[in-house]
Specification:
It is an enzyme of class 2 (transferase). With 287 residues, this protein is of the alpha/beta class. The protein has nine helices and twelve strands. Helix 2 packs across helix 3 and helix 7 crosses helix 9. Bound molecules: S-adenosylmethionine. S-adenosylmethionine (SAM) binds next to helix 3.
């Protein structure tokens, strides 16, 4: 399989500007998602080592996965014995999660697995019957949050979504949220095709396009080409390029500046001069 070629070209038009519409609605990405993310065992092992330990060590039991997609991370948590509520805005993605729950319905933990359609902008209202006293942890992983575009140029919808995540937590509850290292993508002009999340042997190319608005990077589009030998699939996903310092400030403004906030790089403690593919933020809701 040829090595990925990453190219960056600047476009002022032609990039989908899909708002909070479902980028997965045509079903293309959903269909090849499991191929895209590669060996789920490797990916799941990363999660098991990092997330499960972190959740257990902090006494978390009830987890809300706000971007469950096809269910990869939620399934791992259900298998590990957590009580999981999973949601996503895309019914095309959710249908794979629903299918897995149905296939494994005879296992008690899967029968109890709650799956709902919900949008981050209306999340609390969409799932309020399940919030009860608040979740021990909310997870928004797999580069999901960057799917939300900045429609107004001031990230107000991002802030509304994170406020909803915070509202779904109990006091002392934890938010785990990640984003690609867009600072590095902006600097180098390319996104690594292999990373902690995406280990696929079948990924042949990712083309990186950056939309600049008023001199500022406003959207990054990644055109994925996946070839499994017999079949070739192409799909495009667009992301808001979160910068680490700005994202830190948004989290701290919402959770409070005295809240416990730790940042990991590719599931490891972040050290100076690290250049990870992904940043993962852990922030705690004040008691
Ligand atoms: C990159 S996928 C990741 C799914 C899963 N966490 C994984 O890692 O495989 C991102 C998911 O975020 C969902 N999403 C994007 N914007 C959303 C929104 N505003 N509300 C709810 N879900 C959203 C998409 O539908 C998609 O399933």
């Amino acid at each position: 399989m040829p090595e990925s070629e990453n190219t960056m070209y600047i476009r002022s038009n032609g990039i989908s500007a899909e708002g909070t519409r479902d980028q997965y609605a045509d079903g293309k990405a959903a269909k090849v998602w499991e191929v895209f993310i590669g060996d789920t065992k490797v990916r799941t092992m990363n999660y098991r080592n990092f997330l499960v330990n972190m959740l257990r060590n902090r006494g978390c039991r009830r987890i809300l996965d706000v971007a469950c997609g096809t269910g990869v991370d939620s399934i791992m948590l259900v298998e590990e014995g957590f009580e999981v509520v999973s949601c996503d805005a895309s019914d095309k993605m959710l249908k794979y999660a629903l299918k897995e729950r149905w296939n494994r319905r005879k296992e008690m933990s899967f029968e109890n697995w709650v799956i709902e359609e919900a949008n981050w902008l209306t999340l609390y209202d969409d799932i309020k019957d399940h919030v009860k006293g608040g979740f021990d942890a909310v997870i928004c992983l797999g580069n999901s949050f960057a799917h939300m575009p900045d429609n107004f140029g001031d990230q107000r919808e991002q802030k509304q979504a994170i406020t909803n995540f915070e509202k779904c937590l109990r006091p002392g509850g934890l938010l785990f949220i990640d984003h690609r290292n867009y600072d590095s993508i902006m600097e180098t002009g390319s996104a690594p095709s292999k990373s902690i999340y995406y280990n696929s042997k079948h990924m042949t190319d990712i083309k990186t396009s950056v939309l600049i608005v008023a001199g500022k990077p406003a959207m990054v589009s990644l055109d994925y080409l996946i070839s499994t030998g017999d079949e070739t699939s192409e799909f495009r996903l667009s992301y808001y390029p979160h910068q680490l310092e700005v994202f830190k400030k948004i989290l701290r403004d919402i959770f409070g500046h005295n809240s416990y906030h730790e940042i990991f790089g590719d599931f490891k403690e972040l050290r100076d001069n690290d250049n990870p593919a992904f940043y993962i933020h852990l922030i705690e809701k004040s008691e």
